[in-house]
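Worked example 3. Consider a protein that binds NAP.
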Amino acid sequence: MKLKNKVAVITGSSRGIGKATALLFAKEGANIVVNCTTNKAKGLKVVEEINKLGSQAILVQADISKPEEVKKLFDESVKKFGTVDILINNAGIGTPKELLKLTSEDWEKTFRTNVIGTFLCCQEASKIMLKKKKGKIINISSLRGLPEFGRSGYLDYCASKAAVINFTKNLAKALAPHINVNSVVPGFVDTEMSQVWDKKTRESAIKDACLKRLVKPEEIAKANLYLASDDSDAVTGTVLLVDCGFSLK
Ligand SMILES: NC(=O)c1ccc[n+]([C@@H]2O[C@H](COP(=O)([O-])OP(=O)(O)OC[C@H]3O[C@@H](n4cnc5c(N)ncnc54)[C@H](OP(=O)(O)O)[C@@H]3O)[C@@H](O)[C@H]2O)c1
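Given these inputs, the predicted complex is written out as structure tokens:
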């Protein structure tokens, strides 16, 4: 087991990539803090599945865009498990609108979750990890966060995911030498988020990927496992692309 007795906080883990990561980490022996905002029933289902795998889990409903709720997320994690070893900043949102329809409120909402939420969770986790001089932080960005793969109908999302990559690299310096900070950059993954794509985007996501398919959430979970485990102790400030070769097109 690669994560025996480790404690992992995984934001946005009621479904999709976060859920797949929670289940894989539980199989590898970690205890999991499941998090979501609205969908309590789905979050509790993930907790149940983790328990069946023989690991412990709690659900903390917390909106990571709000400082007081992020504090609650980490307070409850420490109260239940005593510490936090791994943080996966996975919760993410975006606004599928063209430029002239986007509002400053759309941008604020996206940046509050994807950028400020990631920052707040890193800050709270760092307080715990710096004391024990050990920890792993993984920030989930997106292919859309790379300048050459953005999309004109998803401007706030692309900019926020670029910020996540920049933040990851500088945070890796700030938290060295004891805490590793890395980013996973998923390509097109088959989750609920991908249901908002139009037909053309979905078709090109498959056709233009070298491997001619979407990425499975479980495949992002495996990249997260590598970066959360001791196998990646020499890796920090890196950006790991998992995109079925889409970026080679
Ligand atoms: N799917 C893709 O193709 C793809 C590609 C590249 C990158 N990504 C990134 O990978 C991550 C996961 O994507 P996904 O497709 O698995 O997403 P998803 O299916 O839409 O799930 C998002 C999760 O985040 C939670 N969430 C949203 N806002 C939150 C907030 N403010 N506080 C706490 N939890 C919040 C949701 O919980 P509630 O239901 O309770 O709101 C849900 O559990 C995101 O950061 C996304 O940008 C995805």
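Take a moment to read the result before moving on. The first helix runs from residue 16 to 27. The chain has one domain: 7-248.
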